[in-house]
Specification:
The chain is of the alpha+beta class. It has one domain (6-128, 170-186): Glutaredoxin, CATH 3.40.30.10. The chain has helices at 15-21, 26-34, 41-49, 67-83, 96-99, 131-143, 152-167, 170-186; strands at residues 56-62, 87-91, 112-117, 122-126. It has a 4-stranded mixed sheet with strand order 2-1-3-4, with helices on one face. Helix 2 (26-34) packs parallel to helix 4 (67-83), helix 4 packs across helix 8 (170-186) and helix 6 (131-143) runs antiparallel to helix 7. The N and C termini lie close together (11 Å).
């Protein structure tokens, strides 16, 4: 990953500003943020141990209307707070140039978490959703290549319901998001 994103550093907003300015899903997002709980001491210890590093930065491409963000981003915010990783939020509608470098299955899928060094060199990324949830979208896209097909929207609705089922409750997806993000961070 040799992408240079330094020109985007300090172009976003803080997680606190993002949460304050939300117009959609605000109550649910805030509840997920406030009710966050570490699933185990080992994960908490891992993230807290990153506080010794001062070479990491994070950019999270997201939006308040995104259901995946509603679940994952509060977890990422809490993890990066514990890790003391400076984090900025890039609202997708204001940063198409950035998300277009990280398309998922050819589309602008969010949230996308980008980890850089202090100069903006991309070191790792995570998103747009946990792998076991993303499997549903991959299967849907493979089975439904024609967006104009009469059954496309109905099939998409079924896929989205399955994705929601796979997410489960916060106690189900929080450890998954934390562990997948840990896998990215351990490689840095």
């Amino acid at each position: 990953m040799s992408q240079q994103l330094g020109h985007k550093l300090n172009q976003g907003i803080s997680p606190q500003q993002f949460m304050a300015e939300m117009t959609k899903n605000k109550d649910a997002f805030h509840a997920n943020y406030e009710q966050f709980a570490w699933p185990d001491a080992e994960l908490q210890s891992f993230y807290e141990s990153l506080g010794n590093r001062d070479d990491l930065r994070a950019m999270i491409i997201t939006a308040d209307w995104c259901g995946d963000a509603l679940r994952s981003v509060p977890v990422v915010f809490r993890a990066f707070e514990a890790a003391q990783i400076p984090t900025e939020v890039m609202i997708i509608e204001q940063h198409y140039d950035l998300i277009d470098q990280f398309l998922t299955l050819g589309g602008r899928s969010i949230p996308m978490v980008l980890i850089t060094d202090t100069g903006g060199h991309l070191l790792g990324k995570w998103g747009p959703r946990p792998k076991h949830v993303q499997e549903v979208m991959i299967a849907f896209k493979e089975a439904n290549p024609d967006r104009e097909a009469p059954s496309y929207q109905d099939n998409l609705a079924v896929a989205r319901q399955e994705m929601i089922r796979r997410y489960g409750e916060a106690a189900d997806y929080t450890p998954v998001v934390l562990r997948e993000l840990q896998e990215v961070l351990e490689r840095l």
